[in-house]
Amino acid sequence: MYEILTGPLLWIAFAVFFIGLTVRVVLYFRGLDWRLDRVAYKPQMKYGIKGAVRSVGSWLLPFGTHSWRSKPLYTLMFFALHIGVVIVPLFLAGHAVMIKNGLGINWPAMPQILADILSIAALLGGLGIMVRRVLLPEVRILTNSKDMLLLALILTLLASGIVAAHNPAHYSFWITLHVACGVTVLLTAPFTRLAHIVLFFCTRIQLGMDFGIKRGGMKTNFDW
Question: Distance between CA atoms of 181 and 162, rounded to whole angstroms?
């Protein structure tokens, strides 16, 4: 099973992931109404780009917006989860070996202790977000079963990776579960809310350009 998951199926999953998300980005921008959304963007591109950069930058920075500052505990959980699921897969030593073997690229790797810290923080942050979705009515009403399944998938991916790295006695089971979860994430990302991996940037760019040009951004510094 492990050989299948790390063989052709893995590369098919990567192809679905990158091609699918690229299509989502293209469809997003092609779906914007020319008169409502894009009419002012081209002639005022300088202000639009400035607004887009400020919008993306503010939302990528912990406590960089009013919304982040109004919910400090959620902000910490959110960034712990997202930093872990982005940084660790990119620079985990085990993944660097796979990249070296598969593509022949010498990929940089982080120390295992740092990977452990970020992974555990991400797992705790994800668990906190799941509890929040269950307990808070204003969040629960916006959450459906698919959202919970996706979050459970991400948490299983994190937990299985942590256990696999520190439980050699049952390594085969946990690493197979970890890779299976990873492949599932890659295959489902373009078709689920995981597409926010790229759509977050699309929406923030659009809104940043909108506020930067049409809503006072050309005259004042908009406070995100």
Answer: 13
pLDDT of 40 reads: 59
Establish if 34 belongs to a structural domain: no
Does the residue 136 lie in any domain?
A: yes
Residue 183 lies in a domain: yes
The tally of domains found in the chain comes to 1
Residue 192 has pLDDT above 90, yes or no: yes
What's the whole-model pTM score? Answer: 0.86
CB neighbours of residue 206 within 10 Å: 20
What is the percentage of the chain residues whose pLDDT exceeds 70? Answer: 89
Q: Domain limits at 18?
A: 2-25+69-209
Contact status, residue 154 vs residue 85, Cβ threshold 8 Å: yes
What is the DSSP-derived secondary structure letter of residue 220?
S
Read off the tokens for 91. Answer: 């620079």
96-150: per-residue pLDDT in tens?
A: 877 777 677 788 889 999 999 999 999 999 999 999 999 999 999 989 999 999 9
Domain containing residue 128: CATH number: 1.20.950.20
Inter-residue contact 42 to 191 (CB < 8 Å): no
| Tokens describing residue 103 | 């593509």
d(CA 215, CA 224): 13
Indicate whether 215 belongs to any domain: no
